[in-house]
Amino acid sequence: MLECQGWSPQPLWLAGTLCLRQHPTFGAEPGATCTASILQYLAIIPTYNEAENIAPLIENILRLDLPLHVLVVDDNSPDGTGQVVDELAAADSRIDIIHRPRKLGLGTAYTAGFLRALDRGYERVITMDADFSHNPRYIPSLVELTDTVDLGIGSRYVPGGGVRLWGIHRRALSRGANLFARTLLGLQAHDCTAGFRCYRAEVLRVIDPQSIHADGYSYLIEMLWRVQNAGFAIAETPIVFTDRRRGASKISQDEIVKAAATVLRLAFTRPQTVPAPGNPPSRS
Ligand SMILES: Nc1nc2c(ncn2[C@@H]2O[C@H](COP(=O)(O)OP(=O)(O)OP(=O)(O)O)[C@@H](O)[C@H]2O)c(=O)[nH]1
Ligand SMILES: [Mg+2]
Q: Of the ligands numbered here, which is closest to the C-alpha atom of 165?
């Protein structure tokens, strides 16, 4: 593992040697093809039955001293999460929502959010869960990470990171999933299943979220695999992940099987790489 210091007051855990590579679009005029005129970040929060969590979470996010907007992607939650957000959005223009007709899965929720983020010209795009497992206090360090790399990951599995209130079964499942994905796909990040991320918009423009096949939780693994193989720089910053206090988990046995199938499918897929011409020399 390589630790780079001096870029940030936080230790920067870089995913293997990826920090030495630079994507052709890195350094291009930010937002050159976009409509936003000032730097703005968007936090995308997919929700399904998070009515108890969503209002305090958004409040915590918007309290941060960052030019941050929030986009909730709700799948017609039976508990009225969408209506809670509608009311918040009516009172604060920094809050937006995409209503989808039914539970369509986490992967397509991210895609819908990414497409809106690109359409509106946001510079950096954060993804996070609604259940406070991803504490908003880590957002500044995640965003800061993407001053120097293309994808920042809030990681449980680098020194300083961890999980709280998880039983042995859940810990083993998460560790096992990471080991499986890292071994079969050669992923260099230590937390490949983390949903707490910050992408530079260039990454999403190049990767095209609509082309990702996985539709559930394994979307995160496929996205990371694509980002790494496209030559983008990836780094991790430690987070302590806390199990949800309110509401119910949506992870099912089905999702676990689907995630394993996604890893196997990708292991037998030739990674698409970005055209080499114009690829600038490495950063160091
Ligand atoms: N829009 C949308 N959001 C979803 C869907 N499934 C899960 N989510 C949201 O995705 C986030 C992650 O889901 P969780 O159930 O917390 O899953 P998890 O964090 O991996 O599992 P736990 O650790 O048990 O909480 C939460 O904000 C959910 O509300 C879905 O089908 N559609
Ligand atoms: Mg959760």
A: 1
